[in-house]
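User: Could you go from structure to sequence for me? I need the amino acid at each position, not a summary. Structure tokens:
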């Protein structure tokens, strides 16, 4: 739908790139079978709101297989999910269900906020032996940037201070990081220095980086699109408090 994988099948062949039926449970179930046979499958869910037919496979099989096998079986599966609003789409097409996955033991949950992180974090997610839920912010798909392909990326689950400040810490991930940077620009015109932390990983959370920032600024604002109640923002606020 977003043309992110446009031309991939032509470039790499039908043996590696498969057009699946729109049956999310079958898509993830097939990926689990491939992982059991030694592959590292990457699956794409068309929209955030369409992932729920696959939720059973993700939670009861994909997330549990490693522990169920006492560590003998690895599940290196990446589930790509476009998420978030801001594109004028209807329900099922503008959701932010990341907390539902961050709650599940055995899953890693990440979300890039910019082009360079999208490039590196996808490769790191594929290299991971754990299943990774990879949330891609829809409204950032067309953001462009130069990517240093020879660089050494930071850890997949490490947060990053993307703007230094002293007055208040803004913590965000995915689509909201750019918004926070724009807010910090506006605040700077009024003489306020806002520090912006890009969480990058929602599970696990790099609390050390957040804590170090808040110890400096003494104030914390957590920004995300997802529902407030029992969301990742509440967890961060509670831990830092």
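Assistant: Here is the amino acid at each position, in order:
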């Amino acid at each position: 739908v977003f043309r992110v994988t446009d031309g991939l099948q032509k470039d790499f062949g039908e043996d590696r790139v498969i057009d699946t039926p729109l049956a999310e449970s079958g898509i993830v179930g097939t990926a689990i079978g491939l992982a059991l046979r030694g592959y590292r499958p990457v699956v794409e869910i068309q929209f955030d709101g369409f992932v729920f037919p696959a939720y059973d496979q993700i939670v009861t099989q994909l997330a549990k297989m490693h522990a169920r096998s006492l560590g003998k079986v690895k599940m290196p599966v990446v589930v790509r999910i476009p998420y978030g609003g801001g594109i004028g789409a209807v329900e099922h097409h503008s959701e932010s269900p990341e907390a539902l996955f961050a709650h599940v033991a055995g899953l890693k949950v990440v979300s890039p906020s910019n082009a360079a992180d999208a490039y590196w974090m996808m490769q790191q997610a594929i290299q991971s032996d754990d299943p990774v839920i990879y949330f891609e912010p829809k409204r950032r798909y067309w953001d462009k940037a130069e990517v240093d392909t020879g660089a050494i990326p930071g850890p997949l689950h490490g947060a990053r201070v993307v703007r230094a400040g002293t007055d208040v810490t803004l913590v965000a991930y995915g689509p909201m990081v750019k918004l926070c940077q724009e807010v910090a620009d506006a605040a700077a015109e009024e003489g306020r220095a806002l520090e912006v932390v890009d969480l990058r990983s929602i599970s696990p959370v790099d609390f050390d980086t957040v804590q170090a920032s808040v110890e400096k600024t003494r104030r914390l604002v957590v920004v995300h699109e997802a529902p407030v109640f029992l969301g990742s923002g509440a967890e961060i606020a509670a831990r830092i408090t």
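One structural detail worth keeping in mind: The chain has two domains: 8-140, 160-240.
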